[in-house]
Amino acid sequence: MIDLQVHTSASDGNWTLENVLRAALKERICAIAITDHDCVDAWKPSTIFPTIKRLAPVDRFETFDDHYIINDLQVIHAEEITCAYRGFEIHLLGYFLCGSMYKDSELEMHNRAMIEATKRRAQSMISKLQQAGYLLEWNDVVRPELPQMIRREFIADKLLERNRARITAELKAKAITSNVSPRLVSDNLIGRDSPFYASVPEQYLAIRGRHPPELKDAVEMVMYCGGVPVISHPGRYKFLASSPLADMPLTGETSKVSLSTPAGKIDREQLVRDFKQASRGLGGLEVHNRKHVLQQIPIWRDLARRYELLVTAGTDFHGERDDYLGALVENGPAGIEMVEKLALAADHIRRIVR
């Protein structure tokens, strides 16, 4: 079993890298990719080596330029990049990223800019919350041992930790009676269109003059690091004309970029054609994703086949209550075969870009 989309607390996941690796080893998963958003902390030596020490005893530990191995578990160097396609937000996965090619690359510049931008946004949010009388300090969210990437969910977690009684009462007054969680707090207090929301300052994020980077530019950023670009959870984008979600209101992730095209007016096949051209036919589609509607899988699998793109599988694990590690693939290639094909594509890409 494999899982090629896993998030840790370095971005917006609830589990630390150590917890994820322990669970993967326990479940005897053969390969995972840590795909934190705009962040590669999970494969920095300063993160890996202390984590391995805490996992001891470990029978086997080997590091390579684009992955590392713990016992029988392969951990692929990866990332999920926030980018734009025709005015809409879309996510791009990059697999088998080379540490040596990543250094001083455009992708590293993008990630550094994201870290600085999220800090600036956090400062603005905390200031607004303090003015409204909430208990929250800068030191609650910024400390050496905490992730550098300050996500809204992380701020919400600390906010709830110090203001649970007040927030519970306020949500109850709004007739919100479900279990009060950081995600609920994020949506209602600091999420988009919420009273204490602050946007990411764009001057810290412009790559090639745009924020977020265009899909084609993000594809190049991945390939110039020796990685394989893959469109993340393609069945979840509401802007695609053929998507079951296309008739739903544009909220959340698809509304963060200024909208230039009406909902449901971009054909998914056009997206695949544009992506194949940008990736020179060496990319893939995340066909198997836990959050896809079941009937979407054969549609995206057929598109991958017709456009000769790779097929990948991931759960989009964030450590939520209903999450589990290990992507189930029905009527498709075995997990290990997916990983082997990704590795071969990465080798091909490196011969092209070097």
CATH superfamily of the largest domain: Metal-dependent hydrolases
Q: How much helix is in the residues?
A: 25-40%
Q: What about the largest sheet?
A: 9 strands, mixed
pLDDT < 50 stretches: 244-262
What is the name of the CATH topology of the largest domain? TIM Barrel
Broad structural category: alpha/beta
Average pLDDT number: 85
- What is the domain total for the residues? 2
| Assembly form of the protein | single chain
**Briefly, what CATH class of the largest domain?**
Alpha Beta
Radius of gyration: 20 Å
The beta-strand count equals 9
Keywords:
354 residues; alpha/beta; TIM Barrel; 9-stranded mixed beta sheet; 11 helices; 9 strands; 39% helix
Can you give a write-up of this model?
This protein is an alpha/beta fold. 39% of the residues lie in helices and 15% in strands. The chain contains eleven helices and nine strands. The chain has helices at residues 17-26, 45-55, 99-102, 106-131, 138-141, 152-173, 182-190, 215-223, 268-279, 296-306, 335-353, and strands spanning 2-6, 31-34, 61-63, 67-70, 73-85, 88-95, 228-231, 284-289, 310-314. Strands 1, 2, 3, 4, 5, 6, 7, 8 and 9 form a nine-stranded mixed beta sheet that branches. The radius of gyration is 20 Å and the shape is globular.
